[in-house]
């Protein structure tokens, strides 16, 4: 397990380890955990306040994980207590960069367990339709929109 303090400059971390944890040094306690799922993909668990102060570090983690896990990422947002537009921008960028796994004709990036705070941000910004395969308040069922074609 590797730990990196967020907010002290952008650092790329390798999610190729079985479990990688990124923590934020201030009281917000933001964390990012990347866990291989055994199928060539990974579960990314975000928790705490994810805002402009840690957006570049979050991007570094997601970009590195997308390179390391060819089947893609499932991002769990259940424990996110605050999410601003900088975080939303990182999630949208990761979704765009991830694209589609051609062997499964499925998105390589999806979110699950959308917290009420994130759901509200998606509603206010009109971006909820980009995260159709999430679950949680106001989100679509987990399987909806996953397969493409």
From TrEMBL:
Q: What is the lineage of its organism?
A: Bacteria, Bacillati, Actinomycetota, Actinomycetes, Kitasatosporales
Question: What InterPro entries does the entry give?
Answer: MlaB-like_STAS, STAS_dom, STAS_dom_sf
Single Gene Ontology MF annotation:
anti-sigma factor antagonist activity
Tell me which Gene3D superfamilies the record gives: STAS domain
Top-level lineage group: Bacteria
Task: List residues of the STAS domain.
Answer: 40-126
**Protein name, UniProt field:** Anti-sigma factor antagonist
The UniProt annotation puts the region (Disordered) at 1-30
């Amino acid at each position: 397990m590797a730990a990196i303090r967020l907010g002290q400059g952008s650092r790329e971390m390798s999610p190729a380890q079985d479990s990688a944890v990124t923590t934020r040094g201030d009281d917000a306690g933001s964390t990012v955990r990347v866990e291989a799922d055994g199928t060539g993909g990974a579960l990314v668990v975000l928790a705490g306040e994810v805002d402009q102060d840690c957006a570049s570090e979050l991007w570094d983690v997601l970009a590195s994980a997308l390179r390391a896990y060819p089947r893609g990422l499932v991002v769990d947002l259940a424990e996110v207590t605050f999410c601003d537009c900088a975080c939303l921008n990182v999630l949208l960028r990761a979704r765009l960069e991830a694209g589609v796994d051609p062997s499964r004709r499925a998105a390589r990036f999806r979110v699950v367990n959308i917290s009420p705070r994130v759901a509200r941000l998606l509603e206010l910004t009109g971006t909820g339709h980009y995260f159709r395969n999430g679950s949680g308040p106001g989100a679509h069922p987990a399987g909806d929109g996953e397969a493409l074609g």
